[in-house]
Design a protein that fits this description.
Rossmann fold, about 40% helix, alpha/beta, about 100 residues
């Protein structure tokens, strides 16, 4: 069964890149966080930590990403239960999580 990936990003170009990574790994992107096997979230979104905690509590793995200069946000995302990486590493991390 293919994995279903929820992509929560405000940047449409970045969403396109991540969608291509997911498709290349045989995964399907979905629009419903409740219907996913993996969620990818922008750690800089205003509600990111709340969303991460909620998804993790339901057993859904979360990959969070953000600017490398916002180490505080990436650390907080990790503490909330996500795998958190800088923007430059999110494509690689997504490939690894989908492998």
């Amino acid at each position: 069964m293919d994995k279903r990936v929820y992509l929560a990003t405000r940047d449409l170009m970045f969403r396109s890149k991540l969608g291509a990574v997911a498709a290349g790994a045989g995964a399907e992107t979905v629009r419903d966080a409740d219907a996913c096997d993996l969620a990818v979230l922008d750690a800089e979104a205003p509600d990111a930590l709340t969303r991460i905690r909620g998804l993790v509590a339901r057993g859904i793995p979360v990959l969070a990403y953000g600017a490398h200069v916002r180490a505080d946000l990436l650390r907080a995302a990790r503490e909330a239960g996500a795998v958190a990486v800088p923007n430059s590493q999110v494509e690689t991390a997504l490939r690894e999580l989908l492998a």
